[in-house]
Design brief:
The protein is an all-alpha fold and 83 residues long. It has six helices and no strands. It has one domain: lambda repressor-like DNA-binding domains (434 Repressor (Amino-terminal Domain), Orthogonal Bundle).
Amino acid sequence: MNLEINKKRISKRKPSELAKIFAQRLKIEREGQGLSQEDLALKSGLNRNYIGMMERLERIATLNTLEKIAKALDTTVLELLTF
């Protein structure tokens, strides 16, 4: 039960500005390359649902995930974190 309370607390946190930038850049880069979420998932080795959740700020990417996405999009982590 205590774990359930912690999950609720975490999910209500507001995403940081950096997380918001990443979510926007992820979608812009993906769509700019004509990739669906499924296409990016296959190229990056990630789950399609996870890609969508990051774009909607329902999940925050780890550094390892950022690297996988940057490589799949043929860009840099820095590019995905800046506007």
